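Bench notes, bay 3.
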Amino acid sequence: MDATAERSGRRGATRRSSGPRADPTRGRRRRRAVLVLPSAFTLGNLFFGFWSVISSFRGRFDLAAWLVMLAAVFDWLDGRVAHLSAGDSAFGGELDSLVDLVSFGMAPAILTYAAFLREEWSWLMCGAFVGAMAVRLARFNVEQAGGAKRYFLGLPSPAAGAFLAMLYPFSTTALFQRWLAGWPWATIVPVSVVALAVLMVSHVPYAALRPGLRGRRARLGLAGLVAALVLVAVAPEETLFPILAFYVMFGFARALGMGLVDRLAGRAEVEAELSGSDGEVEA
């Protein structure tokens, strides 16, 4: 009887093992696709950044500026896709930094030099901007790449590049021509380039713009983001540069205020205020 049961067990095991087997290569192919998808958006970012450079060489400054903004959209998409698909990788992070240096460093710097700066030596300021962005991206990768943060330490490279790029479309609007054309832009532009370079390599905290519905600050951030998107949709050339300028100057002004609090209340309280209970400061 025991022998019969043993034979029956072997036949049952044979029937079970004869069923469809999982293909081990299918999981690897799926994982490879997950890793490739964010990199595809990153290369799209590079494509628009390089196109912007070519457009600046051809004197098509308006097109060059909006191509930088398209590169920023693809930069945002590759981060969201990598997060949602768990496709973050060291390779993707390094590729993203290299591409950002082209799209938000080289492209806006060349556009600014070609459109606004006339002095022979002014290219050095644009070179300093690109160098500062390279340092900022390298520091980010070494210190704390990965993970969701509430603040960036130093001006984010896409914001710095978009600020420079969108100055040209803004300068062609009726609003600019009526109210701002008389300002000393020959001085403002090079000073802005240097200031952006300094802010990128600084430790000035800038909000990561992660709005939501949980908490008063998150809801206020969501309302502000929606209002900004509506303004940009209605009048992009008139509103996008002022919004970026507000982001840059607000972070700096906030840092000055927090520096005063740092001296009065102590550094521990300032760091607690910046990091909050549900996040941390990002470089």
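Next record in the batch:
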Amino acid sequence: MASGGLTRMLCLVLGLCAIGGGVGLFIALSRRNAVDERVKSHEPSCAFGRASGCPQGVDDEGSPWLGATSPTLTIEEFSDYECPPCRRGHREVRALVAEFPEDVRLVHRDFPVDGQCNPSFDRAIHAHACAFAMAASCAGEQGGFWEMNDELSAQLESSSASAVAIESLAAQLGLDEVRFRACLSSEAAKDALRADVEAGLALKLPSTPAFVIRTPTRNEIHIGTIPRQVVLDHLASKKAVKEDERGSRKDSAQ
């Protein structure tokens, strides 16, 4: 690949090309404030840092979910803990789940920008991303995925990746430390991460974070964030279909 092409690809992955440093910081802070204000006006139990009060579980593919138990709309998030745009996008989508807790479900998938576990990269751009993904997955084995997810994201906002001690986080969350350490090197955890990466590769994701809405006709992919209006449009469309179906059943019963 030509050097210019490689540079553009790395910029897209790292989320650094679209905006300059000062402008980027201003936009990031503005988006964070908007998310926080929206969460304040709605039930916060599904918002970032408040997962314990939100319905959660594991789907048929083994991926952790949070939000609606009978969702009108499911959003798959492909993310990398070491990626700053991923952490911003995650807070924003959690605000949407908090706003529509009866309708929106968030499903987490890992897509580390790290050649150690993602073959689409030939080097470890984010050298700790695979380890962080494994840590969250292993916390999930003990029912603590979303708590570990939130703690990792929060610590990485203020600390370097090399300073984040995942075993200390496990102890802080009250996990069985022996079981946690065993899981980190287990084939089951590696297989789960590999399945997520392969799912991302199949979708030909160009970068992270990526938010995917699967429909009968296509996979709708949003890079960086998922606009609130997109969620509103999908919810309105799906609810309209349900209303039509109920009307048809009433007509046929008469």
